[in-house]
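From the pipeline queue, job 12 of 40. The input is one protein chain; the requested action is below.

Action: predict structure.
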Amino acid sequence: MAKISEEQVGHVAKLARLDLSEKEVSKFAGQLSAVFEYMEVLQEVDTAGVSETSQVTGLENVKEKDEVVKWKVSGSDEELSGEDLLKASELPVESKQILVQAAVKKS
């Protein structure tokens, strides 16, 4: 039986910088012990000959090939290329990409 002590839970919480109350430590010790006990039960299952499965729904990632397309100017038959659009940008361009300000700031 895999019993997780409150001291072990407290130690892991400290390493993870989690501020847990004594009540939470006791609660999580019991829950984690139950999880590990169930894992021991699962270890008894004979899985020889069973192939590994990452998911069971049959869903696959949808991938499309990138295509370079011409842009039509509204109300005209004139077509613009990606380079034309980059030249129209008021923002700086580097390596065929428009540079923008970071949406998430590093602290």
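Job complete. Residues 93 and 102 are 15 Å apart (CA to CA).
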